[in-house]
């Protein structure tokens, strides 16, 4: 009789431990899945950042060239007005 009670208590304890272990493993699986998604998203954001930085550099150079051209045109227009 004593062995039966110990076996029942041990079975209940193992069941409880198994339940919480299962929940923990499920949560870890979710964390791993979210971590993989976030890693992919971070990689995309870094890639977009590099691409946008390159585009801003090109835009800066284009605006600088345009500014020079406008100044040159203004100088030529001012010279024609004097004549």
Element order: H for helix, E for strand: H
Radius of gyration: 35 Å
Helix content: over 70%
Average pLDDT works out at 92
Strand content: under 5%
The class by helix and strand makeup works out as mainly alpha
Low-confidence stretches: none
How would you sum up the global shape?
rod-shaped
Number of strands: 0
**Ends distance:** 122 Å
If you had to describe this structure to a student in words, what would you say it looks like?
By secondary structure, the protein is mainly alpha-helical. The chain contains one helix and no strands. The longest helix has 81 residues, at 2-82. The N and C termini lie far apart (122 Å).
List keywords for this structure.
rod-shaped, 1 helix, 83 residues, mainly alpha, 98% helix
Task: Outline the secondary-structure elements.
Blueprint (H helix, E strand, L loop, with lengths): L1 H81 L1
Quick description:
It is built from one helix and no strands.
């Amino acid at each position: 009789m004593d062995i039966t009670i110990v076996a029942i208590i041990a079975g209940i304890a193992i069941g409880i431990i198994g339940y919480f272990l299962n929940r923990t493993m499920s949560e870890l699986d979710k964390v791993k899945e979210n971590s993989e998604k976030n890693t992919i998203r971070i990689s995309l954001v870094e890639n977009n950042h590099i691409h946008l930085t390159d585009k801003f550099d090109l835009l800066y150079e284009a605006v600088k060239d345009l500014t020079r051209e406008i100044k040159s045109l203004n100088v030529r227009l001012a010279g024609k007005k004097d004549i």
